[in-house]
Amino acid sequence: MRIVVLAGGIGGARFLRGLKQAAPDADITVIGNTGDDIHLFGLKVCPDLDTVMYTLGGGINEEQGWGRSDETFHLKEELAAYGVGPEWFGLGDRDFATHIVRTQMITAGFPLSAVTEALCDRWKPGVRLLPMTDDRVETHVAVELDGERKAVHFQEYWVRLRASVPAEAVVPVGAEQSKPAPGVLEAIAEADVILFPPSNPVVSVGTILAVPGIREAIADAGVPVVGLSPIVGDAPVRGMADKVLAAVGVESTAAAVAEHYGSGLLDGWLVDTVDADAVTRVKAAGILCRAVPLMMTGPDATAQMAREALTLAEEAREA
Amino acid sequence: MRIVVLAGGIGGARFLRGLKQAAPDADITVIGNTGDDIHLFGLKVCPDLDTVMYTLGGGINEEQGWGRSDETFHLKEELAAYGVGPEWFGLGDRDFATHIVRTQMITAGFPLSAVTEALCDRWKPGVRLLPMTDDRVETHVAVELDGERKAVHFQEYWVRLRASVPAEAVVPVGAEQSKPAPGVLEAIAEADVILFPPSNPVVSVGTILAVPGIREAIADAGVPVVGLSPIVGDAPVRGMADKVLAAVGVESTAAAVAEHYGSGLLDGWLVDTVDADAVTRVKAAGILCRAVPLMMTGPDATAQMAREALTLAEEAREA
After folding, report:
1. SS3 of B290, please?
2. Do residues B35 and B209 lie in contact, with contact meaning Cβ atoms separated by under 8 Å?
3. How would you label B119-143 residue by residue, b for 16+ Cβ within 10 Å and e otherwise?
4. Is A176 buried (19+), middle (13-18) or exposed (0-12) by CB count in 10 A?
5. How far is the first Cα of chain A from the last one, in angstroms, to the nearest whole number?
6. Pairing of strands A193-196, A225-228
7. Residue A141, domain member (yes or no)
8. pLDDT tens across B239-288, in order?
9. A210 is in which domain, residue-wise?
10. Are the C-beta atoms of A35 and A154 separated by less than 8 Å?
11. B84 min Cα distance to partner chain A (Å)
12. Buried-most residue among A191, B123, B173, B318 (CB within 10 A)?
């Protein structure tokens, strides 16, 4: 079975670990969000790709969900001692190596997709990890700061400001001119199932869908597309998805997110058992729906979520 | 008193610390060798400048003489895990920060002299540290390796090969086209005394003198120029100076090094007490000479060496 998964960072990565456990023989291609990539200290940092790679490759800091295990922060301390920032982005000494290798390869002329493949040669994540695009796409968030309306990089909004001010707009700058990375459209066309993990529907999955050709390829693939709600009980399970949902005029409920994707894209949608009353509304939108436990409390719970998603996909196929 | 010192790495840095103790009120300008600079992992590394900066700024690993104190090597471990080398060059996590800041500034268009000044804003070495040039000069060493004659970067010869094969030639590539960095010729012209610490006469002091204009400015400064022999008892005190001296046809003796600099450049030369019999030969070459203890066994011994050098400079001035 060939499965394509559109993934953001922590939520996507943990879901993928469950999916690998649920479907150990599946051929999994992950299309990773690169809209939150950022250049720091002259280095290209790809937080979402790295979170997937580290999580599936056994190098993740399990507790925080991002960054490396057994990490130290001496380099960052020294940068601060030189007065060189930003200080709000937590790059560890081990993590820096990934960004240095990536930047060297990019500078040498390799596209991000080739670089990601080379990095995965080490981590062996057990999936094929593709960036959504080799082109530069940068998610910017329009905010009002100190009385002034300005656009900040997504990471500045998310990490520095902790989404403490309303997001007035979310713009994947460069997306319109971008092309899907090599292999992305082919993987979608050859997929048996396409999954949207409980990743952020705006700045993770939404950014991937903003790359011209990807949304269309998924809609036209003719295979079940099933998503898992990142909103449980009207609040994001993790992160601050509600803040960016507001920016695109979507309420923070499991049903509203399904409607936001729409039946043109989604065939099935899983909501948490606490949101069982959303099932009727989602079904009314023409999307198969079931309420199951959606808290990734551990590997087994997550694998069970993946199993439920695959089961719903089979139902969608037969429907 | 304005003192100009031409410095390589460890020997030069330690001597400078003694000089600061011996002449606490002196205005010291250090012209640092950049011929052993190297690009590693996409970053510009300046080993000699950094050794001077860390040593005088209190950040040096005292035991090894180079690199940072309280250092860790996690980033390097990770680069090796990615299969990205070279592994033979020991960059620590804290040290990496210096190279990242430097590379960012160079990429932004600042010359190395401005970058060095910015880095010294943090370290406050108590001297004015100038690179010999803002231009790229790279010391290459011609060797026979595996039956083939080839040129290797100085660091590869020194650090990877540990000077285990004969150096057939030492070439400061790019030196002929280089210009002294801003402030270098002015500092020499305004100096009251010019000192050559017990640094490598070929690949440290020799490389600085290879930048067109520097040798001439020193010879024409009309102030005492005094050196300290890096060779004690026919062997280098530290490093492998004998290997590169052979490449330029100079024997590894305190007297031969003085003759190599020559009376056109040197006014005074200190040899170690074990080389007292070299004094006559050096004097015969028209250079004032005295035998004093030249082992930098500690701060006081080193400060005493600096005092002897300044005393010999005064004698040269009166002669």
Report:
1. strand
2. no
3. bbebbebebbbbbbbbbbbbbbbbb
4. exposed
5. 19
6. parallel
7. no
8. 778 888 998 999 999 999 999 999 999 999 999 999 999 999 999 999 99
9. 2-133+177-318
10. yes
11. 7
12. A191
Residue A165 forms part of a structural domain: no
Q: How far is CA A162 from CA A50, A64, A247, B132, in A?
A: 21, 15, 15, 46
The string of pLDDT tens digits covering residues B126-183 is: 999 999 999 999 999 999 988 999 999 999 999 999 888 999 999 999 999 999 999 9
Q: What CATH number has the domain bearing residue A291? A: 3.40.50.10680
Q: Are B55 and B7 in contact (CB under 8 A)?
A: no
Question: Does residue B48 belong to any structural domain of this protein?
Answer: no
Quick check: B100 and A75 CB within 8 A?
yes
CA dihedral B66, B67, B70, B73 (to 10 degrees): -130
B166: tokens are 């004969």
Closest residue to A96, CB basis, from B70, B75, B104: B75
Beta bridge partners of B311: none
A106 touches chain B (CB under 8 A): no
Domains in chain B: how many in total? 1
- Helix, strand, coil % over all residues of chain A, rounded to 5: 40, 20, 40
Q: Smallest CA–CA separation between B95 and chain A, in Å?
A: 8
pTM for this prediction: 0.93
Q: Say which amino acid occupies B237.
A: V
Would you call A123 an interface residue with chain B, using a CB distance cutoff of 8 Å?
A: no
A122 touching chain B per CB within 8 A? yes
Residue B26 in 3-state DSSP? Answer: coil
A-chain residues near B77 (CB < 8 A): 94, 97
Q: Does pLDDT of B85 surpass 80?
A: yes
This complex has an ipTM of 0.92
Half-sphere exposure of A85 (CA within 13 A, CB side): 7
- Please give the single-letter amino acid code of residue B45: V
B155, two tokens:
């660091």
Backbone angles phi, psi at B104, to 5 degrees: -60, -45
Residue B102 lies in a domain: no
B189 vs B181: CA distance, rounded Å: 14
Contact assignment for A100 to B41 by CB distance below 8 Å:
yes
**Which of A41, A75, A99 to mutate against chain B (most B CBs within 10 Å)?**
A75
Phi then psi dihedrals of residue B18, to 5 deg:
-65, -40
Alpha helices by DSSP H, listed for chain A, are: 10-22, 47-57, 74-81, 93-107, 112-123, 154-155, 184-190, 205-209, 214-220, 241-247, 254-261, 278-284, 299-318
SS (H, E, C) A195-211: EECCCCCCCCHHHHHCC
Residue A305 near residue A296 (C-beta atoms within 8 A): yes
Pairing of strands A43-45, A38-40: antiparallel
- Within an 8 Å CB–CB cutoff, is residue A72 touching chain B? yes
| Other C-beta atoms lying within 10 Å of the C-beta of residue B158 | 23
Q: Which of B240, B66, B48 is nearest to B157 (CA)?
A: B240
Q: What is the pLDDT of residues A202-227, one digit of tens each?
A: 999 999 999 999 999 999 999 999 99
- Per the CB < 8 A criterion, the answer to whether B230 and B250 are in contact is no
